[in-house]
Design brief:
By secondary structure, the chain is mainly β. The chain is 9% helix and 40% strand.
Length: 372
C-alpha cells in the first residue's frame, strides 16, 4: 500500500486559504451564473396562413383563421409547442401580449431555433450563458438574488478638482485654507509685492501649498489659476480664503465634483478556498490537488471577518488599505485586491488592511472586518 505524506507546516500564499479561524465570520452564497436562453417572436397577421418554426429539429406549426390577430397566432403556436413533448422539454412557451416567448428549461444550454416564413421574426432576447467562475481569494458582491453572489461592479471614484482665480492686488496677503473630509487642514499663504500679477500670486500660493500638503492628499498646480486636485480618488475637500485687503477677491469653482466609489450592492467579502472543488486524487497516493474557482451555481463560502490570503495585482505592503478592482482589462481580473484605486478602476474596502507584503500576480494576507 503506497505511503501518503502530509505537509507538516500550514500552507501559505494559496488564494482563499484562511490564516486562522480566530474571530472568523463567513456566509454562504451560490455563484449565480448560468442564464437561460430567451427568444421573442413577433408576427405579421395574415388570414388562413400557416406559421411555422423549428426548435431542435422539431417543426411547430399553427394555421390562422380568417380573422387572424397576432395574439391568436402567438397563442396557437404556444399550444402547438406544448403538445410536442420534445420541444416542450427544451423550452417553455409563454405568451406576452402579441408575442410568443421561448425560455430554455436548462440554464446555460443553447438550442437551435429558426423560422420558415417571412411572417415570423425571432429576436434573441437573452443568450444562454454558463456564467463566470469566481476565483478563490477574490472579492464577491451580493447579487440581485438574495442567496447568490457575483463579481463586484460599481461606480468608479473620481478625483475632486477645485479652481481658484485670485484678483492681483499689490502688497496684499493671500490665505487659502483647505479642509479635508477627514478633518485635516492644509493652508497656503503668500504676500504679493508692490507690482502684483495673477501669475505671481498663483505661483506663491502653489509653492507654499505643496510644501505644506501631506502626501496623498491634495496637489496644487496651475499658472494663472490655482488648481487643487485630490490625489486620492474619492477624497472630498472644501476650500476657503481670506486676505488682509478688502480689495482682494478669489473666485472658487468646483471644476470636477468628488465621487466616492461605490459598489452596486453590498460587498460580501473574500471567497474562501474549498479543497473539494475540482478535487483530483493522485493515483500514486501523493497529495491531492483541487480547483482554483467556484463554477456557476456552486455553493461558496465568503469570509467577512478574519484574515485570509487574497490574490493581488499590484505590489502591496503590510498595513496598506485594501481596494477591490471593479473595472478590468483583458489581462486583469475583477474582484482582485490592490492598494490603490488604479486611476478609478478600484474601490476601497472600509476597515480592510493588508497584513503581509505581496507582489503583482501573487497573494497577500487581507484582514477583513465587514459589518454583519
Amino acid at each position: 500500500m503506497p505511503n501518503t505524506s502530509y505537509a507538516t507546516q500550514p500552507r501559505q500564499n494559496i488564494p482563499g486559504l484562511l490564516v486562522d479561524r480566530s474571530g472568523m465570520s463567513a456566509v454562504s452564497r451560490f455563484n449565480g451564473g448560468k442564464v437561460a436562453k430567451v427568444s421573442t417572436f413577433t408576427f405579421v397577421a395574415a388570414n388562413s396562413t400557416a406559421y411555422t418554426y423549428l426548435i431542435e429539429g422539431r417543426t411547430i406549426t399553427f394555421t390562422s383563421d380568417s380573422g387572424a390577430t397576432q395574439a391568436e397566432i402567438a397563442t396557437g403556436l404556444q399550444e402547438a409547442h406544448e403538445l410536442d413533448t420534445i420541444a416542450n422539454g427544451v423550452a417553455i412557451a409563454t405568451v406576452s401580449g402579441n408575442n410568443l416567448i421561448l425560455t430554455g428549461r436548462e440554464p446555460g444550454r443553447d438550442f437551435a431555433l429558426s423560422e420558415t416564413d417571412a411572417n415570423i421574426t425571432i429576436a434573441a432576447t437573452t443568450a444562454a450563458s454558463n456564467g463566470t467562475n469566481l476565483n478563490f481569494g477574490t472579492f464577491a458582491m451580493q447579487s440581485a438574488t438574495a442567496d447568490q453572489a457575483e463579481a463586484p461592479t460599481g461606480t468608479n471614484p473620481v478625483a475632486q478638482v477645485m479652481t481658484l482665480t485670485p484678483l492681483a492686488v499689490s502688497s496684499a496677503e493671500y490665505n487659502v485654507n483647505v479642509l479635508l473630509e477627514d478633518g485635516r487642514t492644509i493652508t497656503a499663504n503668500f504676500t504679493a509685492d508692490g507690482s502684483a500679477t495673477v501669475s505671481e500670486v498663483v505661483a506663491g500660493l502653489l509653492a507654499d501649498f505643496n510644501t505644506n500638503a501631506p502626501a496623498n492628499t491634495i496637489l496644487a498646480s496651475g499658472t494663472t489659476t490655482l488648481i487643487l486636485t485630490a490625489e486620492v480618488l474619492g477624497l472630498g475637500f472644501s476650500v476657503g480664503w481670506s486676505s488682509d485687503s478688502a480689495a482682494v477677491s478669489v473666485s472658487v469653482v468646483e471644476t470636477t465634483a468628488n465621487t466616492n466609489g461605490s459598489f452596486d450592492r453590498d460587498l460580501i467579502g473574500v471567497l474562501e478556498r474549498d479543497n473539494s472543488v475540482g478535487l483530483v486524487t493522485q493515483a500514486s497516493g501523493g497529495e491531492s490537488t483541487g480547483g482554483t474557482s467556484y463554477s456557476a451555481n456552486h455553493a461558496m463560502s465568503i469570509v467577512r471577518k478574519g484574515r485570509i490570503w487574497a490574490s493581488v495585482d499590484d505590489t502591496v505592503s503590510d498595513g496598506d488599505s485594501v481596494w477591490v478592482r471593479i473595472t478590468a482589462s483583458a489581462t486583469e481580473t475583477v474582484g482582485i485586491a490592490r492598494n490603490d484605486s488604479d486611476s478609478g478602476d478600484a474601490i476601497q474596502v472600509p476597515g480592510a488592511f493588508f497584513r503581509s507584503a505581496g507582489v503583482s500576480g501573487g497573494q497577500a494576507i487581507v484582514e477583513l472586518n465587514l459589518p454583519a
